[in-house]
Amino acid sequence: MSYDLILRQALKLHDEGRLDEAERLYRQILETAPDHPVVLNLLGLVAQSKGLHEQAVSFFARAVEQNPQSAEYHFNLAWSEERRGKAAEAIKAYLRALQLQPGIKEARNALGNLYAGLGQTERAREQYNQAALLDPAYVEPRANLAKAENDIPALQKLAAQYPDDALIPYYISLLYRKEGKNEQALATAERACALSADESALLLAGELCLDMKRQTEALGYFRRALGLNARSVTALINLANAEADAETAEQMYKKALDISPDNVDARINLADLFYRQGRLHEALEEYRQAVILAPERAEISNNLGIIQKDFGEYEEALGLFFNALLKRPERAEYALNAAETLTLLYEKEADKAKKIAANWLRQMPENIFARRLNEIFGHTDGSSGTDYARELFNQFADNYETVMNKIEYRLPQLFKQLLGAAKGEVIDLGCGTGLIGQALKNDENRLTGVDISSAMLEQAGKKGVYDKLVEADIEKYCRRLPPADWVVAADVFGYVGRLDGIIPAVFPRNFCFSVAAAAGTDDYELTPSGRYRHNPEYVKKLLQKAGYSDIMEHRTELRRENGRPVEGVVFVAKEK
Q: Which CATH number do you get for residue 452?
């Protein structure tokens, strides 16, 4: 069969969307004509359609090498470079295409998008305007310019001029979402979907529904997007993210990776799924693949560090956490992970942990976790305890209750057992996410929750059990403590050393609180974990000195720390 006949047959299959069959014929031609630029270009287009942009770039580059005067080949190369996130390479190829054929309006528009993405607004505006001059009826560059300038009124004006254009309400929806106006964003995304069954608009509507906790609607949009494009990697990832069944989600992530092996989000999400299932070695491998694809993404280094920490490879974990911190020094959760890992290393190799902590402080003297850790390792109270506690619990809030379950936190039930139906005004010091409030709330009391962390208070507010929430340092709050029948403090004094100021301030109110028991004879001690433990005799003397005469001590296991029980005492103190 002649080349021409095979090529015509392949083109027919390509037009019909039978990509694998077309590809086989194109490759058959290449076996005897390996430098055929037309076939190389067509193979690039097949790879493009499959989302295999690395492969597409390889084919287009070979086609360009054989025919460097083809504007089409340069344009196709640029398009795939853009899709694989290579802005500089894409710009270079688009500019070359325009040198060869200045009237390609799509190249001007694409350059505008690339420059806008790089924050080069003037260059973007120039390209958009040139694209519009090439074709005054070409609305896309005008819409792109308005979007790049975050100009919703300009887009609304365009929408009035072009009421049947789905791109414009899609862009309006994107900008509303950026402003946090999800209701308006969803309404305009739905308008875009009604005008055109467009994959991007359907995906946006689905993501907005997820943001608004409307999961059933979200799944519907993602399935519609997948119905339009069975190879939509974004739709598959979103469906997997929303899927409750882990096995089904895993298969969707893997299908996305079959289509696009270089998709970093699919790799990260699959790794996250494996991690949640305790499949650490599989998670580790996926994260390693992800970091090869996107070494600049700090969260991958952080996640790799978490797994190495779980494996007990503390030094390797620290290297990964510090790598993440160097890329994103503002991300407090990375610093928290480093601090926790250094604490674990300290238990095994104290001198090494001290040296690493000291070096961290030299490199990042403003980092609150580095400062606090050096105070802890130096066995000094220091001045950073309050700021440390605030930042710690702001980071901890979203996962706090999950962690509490893992460490077998028992105080809410115990406090309820000891206090019974606590009546009247109850002040919950260090209320956290409201676990104690939830245990103590009844029809005969009013609860006030006090915490240093705004994020914790936000979570506590969602429980609907507190009549009042106060953001404050509990030591300062106690200096002006309002009248109350009960004051409670569960697992709070682990972040307070001396209790000389708090206990007298609470008297004569009934007081129920816990302390972790110190091992030595000192009044209190600062442990490598950054938490204080108190001598029960010191606490009892403070209660007696303050005026409490009815003091009950309940010795118990408060929780577990690094797999070991933390023994402590719950005090219930009353004035006779």
A: 3.40.50.150
Choose one of 184, 210, 236: the last residue of a domain: 210
In a shared domain, residues 492 and 413:
yes
Determine the Cα–Cα distance for residues 217 and 206; give it in Å rounded to an integer. 7
User: How far apart are alpha carbons 446 and 425 in whole angstroms?
Assistant: 5
CA distance 237 to 222: 9
Same domain, 524 and 469: yes
Compute the residue count for the chain.
576
Q: State the Cα–Cα distance between residues 133 and 130, nearest whole angstrom.
A: 5
Tokens 């414009």 locate to: 168
Structural domain of 553: 407-574
Read off the tokens for 552: 């009950």
Can you give the pLDDT of all 576 residues of the chain as single tens digits? 577 788 888 888 898 888 889 888 888 888 888 889 999 999 999 999 887 888 999 999 999 999 999 999 999 999 999 988 899 999 999 999 999 999 999 999 999 999 999 999 999 999 999 999 999 999 999 999 999 999 999 999 999 999 999 999 999 999 999 999 999 999 999 999 999 888 999 999 999 999 998 988 999 999 999 998 888 899 999 999 888 889 999 999 999 999 888 899 999 999 999 999 999 999 999 999 999 999 999 999 999 999 999 999 999 999 999 999 999 988 888 988 898 899 889 888 989 999 999 999 889 888 888 888 888 887 666 556 677 777 777 776 777 777 777 777 889 999 999 988 888 999 999 999 899 999 999 999 999 999 999 999 999 999 999 999 999 999 999 999 999 999 999 999 988 888 999 999 999 999 999 999 987 778 888 887 778 899 999 999 999 999 999 999 999 988 877 667 889 999 999 987
Q: pTM of the predicted model, to two decimals?
A: 0.70
- 223 within some domain: no
Quick one: 413 and 372 in the same domain?
no
CA distances 291 to 136, 262, 287, 323, Å, are: 44, 11, 6, 12
